[in-house]
Amino acid sequence: MAADAIPMRSEEFSSVVAAITSAFGDPTRRQIYLFARERPDGVTASEVAEKFCLHANVARHHLDKLAAGGYLEVHTGRAGGGAGRPSKRYVPGEEPAVIDVPIRRDDLVATLLARALDLLPRELAETMAEQVGIEYGRAMAASLEPSGEGQRSFRSALHAVADALTAHGFAAHTEASGDDLSIVSDTCPFAGSVASPVICAVDRGMVKGMLAALYGETTPETASSRAHGDATCITAVPVSL
């Protein structure tokens, strides 16, 4: 079924990215979600506030955003069964939240592409693959809803790129790494079908193309990839000052 899925229209893609960004666009909110998932009995706003050094109202805002997106469930009850104001517990569902996005994953075409690129000199093949990624990344960025604030900051642009990659099946997030910020992809749409460093150049090009459109020219580099036997794919981007 995945190979036969119809590619998303730009407005559908924008809606999916907007939904993901609303829930997980804030780094603290992502950490709160992971914290809640580690506690089967759920968490309260006061527990989250204490854990992340937040005001209780701020913690509640993050939790309500996650609940509104369906990522957490809200259970109410009185602490210890006694009297007093009912407390809200934000509980993870039975299954991790997933985004149902129709992604085209034609394993045969991807495999044949990788083999065709292997016939070219490695440097030329990676250059061609990265250029394809750059052009597609620019097209992806054009599908994103405007931020409404003019040109994005470097960090907000990087978060938008991670959200867009997630909508395309990469399960990506940003991390600080020394003097760089990195996009870490915990899932690769090509996993199991293609393990070629040349294909990784496409991913790097997508990051470069999106950042160029959302922020400005950058020089992302592949820090690790599954094609080299690494656990995750990481694209490091020097922090622009």
Task: Walk me through this protein's architecture.
By secondary structure, this protein is of the alpha+beta class. The protein folds into two domains: 91 residues, Orthogonal Bundle (Arc Repressor Mutant, subunit A), CATH 1.10.10; 132 residues, Trafficking protein particle complex subunit 3 (Muramoyl-pentapeptide Carboxypeptidase, domain 2). It is 47% helix and 14% strand. It is built from eight helices and six strands; from the N terminus they run ααααββαααββαββ. The strands form two sheets. Strands 3-4-6-5 form a four-stranded antiparallel beta sheet, covered by helices on one side. It has a two-stranded antiparallel ribbon with strand order 1-2. Helix 7 crosses helix 8. It is elongated, with a radius of gyration of 20 Å. It starts with 9 loop residues before the first helix and ends with a strand.
Major sheet: size, sense and barrel closure? 4 strands, antiparallel
CATH superfamily of the largest domain: Trafficking protein particle complex subunit 3
Strand content: 5-15%
| CATH uppermost class of the largest domain | Alpha Beta
Q: Give helix and strand order, one letter per element, not per position.
A: HHHHEEHHHEEHEE
Q: In angstroms, what separates the terminal alpha carbons?
A: 45 Å
| CATH architecture annotation of the largest domain | 2-Layer Sandwich
C-alpha Rg, in Å?
20 Å
Going by helix content, strand content and strand pairing, the class is alpha+beta
Overall pLDDT level: 75
What share of residues is helical?
Answer: 40-55%
Which sequence of strands runs across the widest sheet? 3-4-6-5
Give the number of helices. Answer: 8
Number of structural units classed as domains: 2
| Beta-strand segment tally | 6
Unreliable sequence segments: 1-8, 10-14, 98-106
**Morphology:** elongated
Q: Classify the oligomer.
A: single chain
Here the CATH topology of the largest domain equals Muramoyl-pentapeptide Carboxypeptidase, domain 2
